[in-house]
Amino acid sequence: MQETLTNILRHAGARNVWIELAVAGDGLKLTVRDDGNGFDLAESHRRAIGGGSIGLLSMEERAALADGRIEISTAPGAGTTVRAMFPLQAAQSTVDTA
Ligand SMILES: Nc1ncnc2c1ncn2[C@@H]1O[C@H](COP(=O)(O)OP(=O)(O)O)[C@@H](O)[C@H]1O
Ligand SMILES: [Mg+2]
How many structural domains comprise the chain? Predict the structure, then answer.
């Protein structure tokens, strides 16, 4: 959430942001959507893997630590939607063994 909002402020030039947190099936789903510039995801990934930025990669890594995953839909001119999905079962067992 923090990284997506920082990215929207820094990069998107958006007018609106929609945030939804919902239980979907047996998981938790966080959606952050903006109506800004959008971007070339493949290009940004290449740049990130080459050491050019860490925001998107660190979101993916942090989601994976909680057995979750990130999905990004975006295109230049079309806004951006970032979804983070986490299994509630895994979150529960993490708490139990803590
Ligand atoms: N919501 C967004 N709207 C437009 N561009 C974005 C958005 N989120 C990310 N980007 C693009 O993806 C790139 C990589 O993001 P990130 O890995 O967080 O690096 P950083 O924010 O440090 O540049 C950004 O530089 C920007 O070009
Ligand atoms: Mg960033």
Answer: 1
